[in-house]
Amino acid sequence: MMMSDIAKDRTAHLLKKRGSVSSLSNHEFRRKEPHGRTKDSVSTVSYMDEPCQPEDASRLTVHMENTYQLGPTKHFPVVIVNHILKDVLTTYLQEEQYEPELCRQMTKTISEVIKAQVKDLMIPRYKLIVIVHIGQLTGQSILIGSRCLWDPKNDAFASFIFRNSSLFALANVYIVYFE
């Protein structure tokens, strides 16, 4: 007994709509049963990688389970980050003279470079804040302060001050543990 063409089309349409590809259109498999009759079979392949319609993308969201981890498994390496700050500031500012527009752009560039290098350390579950100040060195003084809700057990910071003949730079990296 063969499956009718209408039933095959309906089955193929339903399987494609569900995210499966059916072999009905390409191959039909007949299997002999022990009593000498033949039986039609349908083989399907399901997929999850590529949704066929935009609304299917919302179904494929990943839901993360709670880990109930209250502290970091690996602490923030302040010494290594201090070396990163020193290297980046020295590399970018060693030969520079203070010019307001140049220093404004350099602040953004240096912040992004520091952030990228600290992220390369792959310290999980920490939020990263990088702040860079560059100013002209003309005998003035400056006070810079910051405030944050802080857990001294898990949160940390690194700081480095650079000076040459015409400018100073202060780079701060704050790392806050994200529970």
TrEMBL record:
GO terms for biological process: microtubule-based movement. Residues 20-50 are annotated as: Disordered. One of its GO terms (molecular function) is dynein intermediate chain binding. CDD domains: DLC-like_TCTEX1D1. It comes from the Eukaryota. GO terms for cellular component: cytoplasm; cytoplasmic dynein complex. Residues 27-40 have a biased composition (Basic and acidic residues). Belongs to the dynein light chain Tctex-type family. PANTHER family: DYNEIN LIGHT CHAIN TCTEX-TYPE 5 (PTHR21255:SF64), T-COMPLEX-ASSOCIATED-TESTIS-EXPRESSED 1/ DYNEIN LIGHT CHAIN (PTHR21255). This is Dynein light chain Tctex-type family member 5. It comes from Bos mutus grunniens. The gene is DYNLT5.
